[in-house]
């Protein structure tokens, strides 16, 4: 472990312990011991997970030209979700979801393709009706689950 990594781990440890003390609002010995153990575990986990970052993501401004679409879906899909609850709880009708698949070609290893995938999964899952299950790079497919069947592109940012 380098000195820089050791300092980063120590800084995380102190920060996590301080957050715990703020939340616990007590300086009794059992709380201090619990906070210290929790801070050590949290700092170790944060350091371990930080080492897994291996892909850079480069977002270009042109990728965000349709950035308003997920926020519109947030509103419209909330209405669909409320209607689904009404159907289920009041009308006693079952709600049948479905899986949908769309062609998705941004499956390469470049930083730009990684950014496209991250943005697509975020944008496709922001609304309450749809959830992006994942992107199959071998078949070049975007896989989405819809709680209520709806129209519209599965890739709202049109990045794939």
Mean pLDDT: 88
Approximately how much beta-strand content do the residues carry? 5-15%
Order of helices and strands: HHHEHEE
Q: Please give the alpha-carbon distance between the first and last residues.
A: 40 Å
- Please count the beta strands (DSSP E, at least 2 residues each): 3
Derived from helix and strand composition plus strand pairing, the structural class reads mainly alpha
Major β-sheet profile: 3 strands, antiparallel
The low-confidence parts are none
Count of runs of 4 or more consecutive helical residues: 4
| Range of helix content | 40-55%
The rough form would be described as flat
Integer-rounded radius of gyration: 22 Å
Domain module count: 2
* Strand order in the largest sheet: 1-3-2
Structure description:
The chain is mainly alpha-helical and 160 residues long. It folds into two domains: 3-50; 61-146, no CATH class. The chain has four helices and three strands, in the order αααβαββ. A three-stranded antiparallel sheet has the order 1-3-2, with helices on one face. β2 (130-136) and β3 (141-146) form a beta hairpin. α1 (3-24) packs across α2. The radius of gyration is 22 Å and the shape is flat. The two termini are 40 Å apart.
Quick structural overview:
The chain is built from 4 helices and 3 strands, in the order H-H-H-E-H-E-E.
